Amino acid sequence: MHADEKGALAFLGIIGRWRGCEKICHVCLKARRGSGNRAKWKPKASEWREEAIFLLIAPLRTGAARLLSVPIDLAQGLVSHAFISLNFSFHHDFSRDIRAVRLFWHLHTQTSEQGIYVAGFDEKVGATSEPTLAAEAANPTFLATHPTLPVLYAVGGDDKTGGVVLAYAIDPKSGGLTLINQVADGATNGTYISVTPDGRTVLTAHYSGGYLQSFPIRADGSLGECASRVEHTLTGKHPQQSAPHPHCIKVSPDGCFAFAADLAADRIFSYRITPESKLADGKVAAALAEGCGVRHLAFSPDARFMYAINELAATVTVFAYDAATGGLREIETVSTVPPDFSGRRWSAEVAVHRSGKFLYASNRANDESIAAFAVDPASGRLAFLQRTGGLAHPRHFAISPDGGWLLCANQDANNVASFRIDATTGKLAEPAKRFGVPACVCVVFWPAK
């Protein structure tokens, strides 16, 4: 990068940086590898054309950018270690209070080299820089950020060598990651990771292995050794419920309770989090319909309601949440697929908009979509708004910190789609952008607020 291009948005196989960036969105990715030499991922020519055209005009549309130069190597269009051989360089002036975000994401393939990747994200227009490697890691499957420190946590490892929890220091300017430390996380790779609101504890859930673990966080963001471990034992009748499968562990907004959704047990378990970062007083907080396969959980911003997405039934169950006791009272269950749907039901992610007015839920398999619902503020009940299709295994998505965008990880299409959210209706517009990310499965913004 030339000296007069300081602050430029640069796509040079390193961190794509926007001047004045306040937020960073990280995503874990795995670059594909063949047996032997690394395979080279080749996006379609149309995808490169779309990328080039969008990145050329997006800064001009804001009225806040001056094009300096655009060296483009379309002949190669290759990815190695998830680095894309495509170089852009132009000045992007954020003096007009245009906020930028960075994203971290995770990419998942059966045989791959992988790591945690970073990209810039402009909340004004939904544009991103090219995702680039922020840190190498062995099979990072889920990410979480510290509430106050510039630290990112990831679960990784594998079922042969054992699981690990990794702590990374985030460079606030570039989004680069530096490993602080890592600790053992049992015999299997974790499926989910969360951090308590006070920033004192990390919690992990293990779909494979059927257990939960907790870890203390030190003052510098580093991790202490495992403080507690909880084994789940219940199973169900569905073929996917033959062994315990805690799929996520979600902390209540006040940080007093941790809730674990066990897909095999059709139950949500609650645990008290002690000052020593231990999980204690475990009990069944809610028993759901047999065979529903509860997967992920989300709280309303006012902490009055919890929403559970049920993977095997393709439904969302609404609960009233009692913050004093950690109790859950079931209110209703709604479908995420059409009434006449026939095929495999395979839901994935659920999230509540920061306004509390809307909820989004993703479906995979025979209904590749995101279903949007309006939330009744008094009762927490859901009213169907819209179903957005044209996706490919939307395993995870995240809503931008300003609430203006939903970024959906299309695992099987090797891209992330950026949808603008209508602040009044909650509906998703057609994708403003689809940017190439091989087999992305997790998207995280930083800072989260």
Relevant terms:
449 residues, mainly beta, Methylamine Dehydrogenase, Chain H, 6-stranded mixed sheet, 1 helix, 47% strand, globular
Write the layout of secondary structure elements.
Layout: E1 9-10, E2 24-32, H1 45-62, E3 65-69, E4 79-80, E5 83-84, E6 89-92, E7 100-107, E8 112-122, E9 127-128, E10 132-136, E11 142-145, E12 151-158, E13 162-170, E14 177-184, E15 192-195, E16 201-206, E17 211-216, E18 228-231, E19 246-251, E20 257-262, E21 267-273, E22 279-287, E23 294-299, E24 305-310, E25 315-322, E26 327-335, E27 347-352, E28 358-363, E29 369-375, E30 382-388, E31 394-399, E32 405-410, E33 415-420, E34 433-436, E35 440-446
Parallel strand pairs: 2-7
Antiparallel strand pairs: 1-6, 2-8, 2-35, 3-6, 4-5, 7-8, 7-35, 8-9, 8-10, 11-12, 12-13, 13-14, 15-16, 16-17, 17-18, 19-20, 20-21, 21-22, 23-24, 24-25, 25-26, 27-28, 28-29, 29-30, 31-32, 32-33, 33-34
